[in-house]
Design a protein that fits this description.
Number of helices: 8
Shape: globular
Bound molecules: heme D
Strand order of the largest sheet: 1-8-7-6-5
Oligomer: single chain
CATH architecture of one domain: Orthogonal Bundle
Structural class: mainly beta
Helix content: 10-25%
Strand content: 35-45%
Largest sheet: 5 strands, antiparallel
């Protein structure tokens, strides 16, 4: 089925399709009407996940049953999980909690054979011209993900005009990743589809389903490999970026055989390795793609670093020597990747969103700053002493924080709050003071900023179905243009991504 048609028929068809694709047992969830009415559209009729995570006993090790009941009743912070306390009876909530801890009658497999069979090739490697089909600066393009109708737009970052708009898989999540030259972009959807898109030719090249419930993907700094992190099954999947053929499926297990979801995987360019954080095992894994460490180019043998706590979310120092991590409800920790162990605790109260952290030079030190999903505060931390320099109070919990080497300001949203969600707050990176509040579209949710390659303009999303991108002059903080978009979520500037700008995610 073509991607546009696939999307037109979403989301209802998603559930039917997944049941056809996967040989699974529906019985338990099927006979629970509350599950079908309230949970299936996000978590899958089969409990294997969709926009929400898979609800299987193996994925719920860290959630005690009373907490599951609380989550169903009150919702879950910083996620799309709503509260059902007023919609369902106590008995219905208890039966749902029982259901999600019950094993499936038959757990589906999604191993090498299934992954390989799912691959679709739209253009043969090397068959498309090696120059851009448009005049715009290929390094100052933005890839904008529009969640409203599952599309992506390629935007000219000088003229702020869309070059093309195309259908994507259902519910992309996380930052798309680029080849080192910026020609290709790789997307991951929550239900495991990885897509390779040729920006220069404005064409989809290949797709493959690497998992059933996927977190994110990373692309190696040499452009050769993609590594996909899955929640279900508990695997990391290495792909050949030329045509997305699978190279290796790595079972994520500790020494005792206990398996784990993968919180996220990132490329650590100077180390020539992927770093993966695990959700259910207190370990962080390093998977080298250096030819010296992996002469046969297929091994990806993990180096396991054992920790005292889980890593749900993390951030790297600019040299990629350290991982600064936090767990949901846990203590922040600094792991030195060279010595292979935790070297410091870091005070990160609330629920810091480290994946959205940024760094810059402040006085004589490099600092990192992270918004907080639970508290209205931005924490600024010295990356040598690992001490908190300042907690900047904000209007409410935020989600995304962004800056650029050539701008004096850091931009943070109030996305995770119950009020003030239409505000973007501006922090002066020299004084660590809040200097301005912007309302891109009063009354409408504003989130996620990204800068042009020269840092002169900041692009903010109005995160609504009748939303828009609002372009600001990053110096005067005046609006220069508005572009209509369908719930634009993240936007990603090719140059800032491939040069690993300190002001954006990598
Ligand atoms: Fe995200 C990035 C995890 C909910 C939009 N989010 C990421 C990344 C992780 C993550 C690990 C980094 C991956 C990468 O870029 O390679 N997100 C989580 C969660 O654990 C959480 C809280 C719960 C969940 O449902 O998984 C969560 N995220 C959301 C949302 O509800 C958001 C707002 C809407 C959506 O798309 O589902 C959302 N997350 C995003 C976006 C990015 C992201 C737009 C990329 C930011 C960037 O600039 O790189």
């Amino acid at each position: 089925m073509s991607v546009p048609l696939f999307n037109k028929l979403m989301p209802g068809l998603f559930l039917i399709l997944s049941s056809l694709v996967l040989p699974i047992a529906w019985a338990d969830a099927e006979i629970n009407p509350a599950y079908q009415t309230h949970c299936a559209s996000c978590h899958g009729a089969d409990r294997l996940g969709g926009t929400g995570p898979a609800l299987l006993p193996g994925n719920l090790d860290r959630l005690k049953r009373p907490d599951a009941i609380k989550t169903i009743t009150e919702g879950r912070l910083a996620t799309q999980m709503p509260a059902f306390g007023t919609k369902l009876t106590a008995q219905e909530i208890t039966s749902l909690a029982e259901l999600i801890y019950a094993p499936l009658a038959k757990t589906p497999t999604w191993g090498m054979d299934e992954i390989r069979t799912s691959r679709v090739e739209y253009a043969k490697t090397g068959s498309l011209p090696d120059k851009p089909a448009f005049k715009a600066d290929p390094l100052n393009l933005f890839v904008v993900v529009e969640l409203g109708d599952h599309h992506a737009t390629i935007l000219d970052g000088d003229k702020f005009e869309p070059i093309t708009r195309f259908a994507t898989r259902y519910a992309l999540h996380g930052g798309p990743k680029f080849s080192p030259d910026g020609r290709y972009v790789y997307f991951a959807s929550r239900d495991g589809w990885i897509a390779k898109y040729d920006i220069w030719n404005l064409k989809l090249v290949a797709e493959i389903r690497a998992g059933i419930n996927t977190r994110n993907l990373a692309v190696s700094s040499d452009g050769r490999f993609a590594m996909v992190a899955n929640y279900f099954p508990h695997t990391l999947v290495a792909l050949d970026t030329r045509d997305l053929t699978p190279i290796r499926v790595i079972d994520v297990k500790d020494d005792g055989g206990k398996s784990s979801r993968v919180s996220a995987v990132y490329d650590a360019a100077p180390r020539k390795s992927f770093i993966a954080a695990l959700k259910d095992i207190p370990e962080v894994w390093e998977l080298s793609y250096d030819d010296k460490a992996m002469p046969d180019k297929t091994a990806f043998a993990p180096r396991r670093l054992k920790l005292d706590d889980y890593l749900d979310d993390f951030f790297f120092d600019p040299a990629y020597d350290h991982v600064i991590g936090s767990s949901r409800g846990g203590q922040g920790q600094v792991v030195n990747l060279n010595v292979g162990r935790k070297i410091a605790d870091v005070a990160l109260p609330g629920l810091p969103h480290l994946g959205s952290g940024i760094s810059w030079r402040y006085q004589d030190q490099t600092v990192m700053a992270t918004p907080n999903l639970k508290e209205g505060v931005v924490s600024v931390i010295d990356m040598t002493s690992w001490k908190t320099i300042k907690q900047i109070p904000t209007l409410g919990p935020g989600f995304f924080m962004r800056s650029h080497e050539r701008t004096p300001y850091a931009w943070v949203d109030v996305f995770n709050s119950s009020k003030n969600r239409d505000v973007i707050q501006i922090i002066d990176k020299k004084t660590l003071e809040l200097v301005k509040e912007l309302k891109p579209s009063p009354g409408k949710v504003a989130a996620h900023t990204e800068f042009t390659r020269d840092g002169k303009y900041a692009v903010v999303s109005v995160w609504e179905n009748d939303g828009e991108l609002v372009i600001y002059d990053a110096k005067t903080l005046e609006v220069v243009k508005r572009i209509k978009m369908n719930k634009p979520s993240g936007k990603y500037n090719v140059y800032n991504k491939i040069t690993r700008s300190e002001g954006t995610s990598h």
